[in-house]
Structures are given as structure tokens and as C-alpha cells.
Amino acid sequence: MPAILTILSTGLPLPTQVFNIRYKFFISSYTMSEDILEAARAIRPYLPELLTAEQAKAIDHQLTQLLTQQDQTKVDNLILDILCSQEPTRQWIDEFLELKLPPTLEKSYQPIPGNLTPVSSVAKYTCPFGDYVWYQRQVGEPIPNCPTHEVPLEKV
Ligand SMILES: [Zn+2]
To answer: Which terminus, N or C, of the chain has the lesser number of Cβ atoms within 10 Å?
Structure first.
């Protein structure tokens, strides 16, 4: 195993963290871009749980600006910069890229004995304008509107 993988979470400077995430997953930059955009949409509902209210607001604002840009070809690195700037969001995106699901969601479904709901059946909703993804964590949990566009989310 390359030595760089063993120094993943040692508080390295930002560009190295970003490089490490790309390096770790060995994914072509096209696929990686799509996954990073998806991670940015999906992390937005979790920001208030991961960061202070002030940080969450600032990062959500930055992500929204990038996700609603017409040209999304170069935003993936900027998104990685933003999400790697804080340790809780860096860990979150690292796990999201591996699981293809919000890590908190996966954890909340696993440890409940007798819960037969497979993770794949978790309902996923997106904004029709493509900037927000929301997973329903419990049956009956009310579905929010997109906080950017204030329109109802659509089930995927
Ligand atoms: Zn939206």
C-alpha cells in the first residue's frame, strides 16, 4: 500500500487532502466530478449536525453558489476545497465517496436489531434544479422543500 494512504488524516495542508481523496478512490476525473457534485448536494442537510451554525451557514452558501452555476465542469475541485477545509465535512465526504450514501444515514440504519429495512430502500429526494439531495431517515419524516429554490423535492 502506498505510504500516502497511511497519512490520510494527519491534518495535512488543504491541497494534499484534496489530492488524497482523489488518489484514494482511483476514479477517473469525470466519474469523480459527478460523485463530488452528488456529495455536495447530499451533505447540505447534514451541515448543521457536522459544524457550528455559523460554519454550516457559510459552507452551505458556498456550496449553493457552486451547485447552481451554469457551468459545472470545474466546480468539483472547489467543492473539495470547501469540504476538506473542516475535518467533520472532510470525513463525511470521504465516507460518502466510499458508501455512495450519507455515512450518518448508513450508521443510523445498521445498529438497530430486527430492522430489516435495507439501505437501498431508503427514499431519496432531489431538487428539480439539481442542487439539493435529501434522504428520508425515518418513515413518515416530513419531506422538506429545497432551501435554495423553496420548491418541493422530487422522489428519485
Ligand atoms: Zn434547489
So the answer is: N
Query: How many angstroms is it from 143 CA to the middle of ligand 1?
Result: 14
Q: What's the whole-model pTM score?
A: 0.76
DSSP state string for 112-152:
STT----GGGS-EEE-TTSS-EEE--STTPPPPBPTTT--B
**What are the cell numbers at 129?**
434544479
Q: H or E element: which one contains 1?
A: none
Long-range (24+ apart) CB contacts under 8 A made by 136-143 are 137/105, 137/108
Place of cell 476538506: 84
Cα(150) to ligand 1 centroid in Å equals: 7
The neighbourhood of ligand 1, an ion, using CB within 5 A, equals 127, 129, 131-132, 146, 148-149
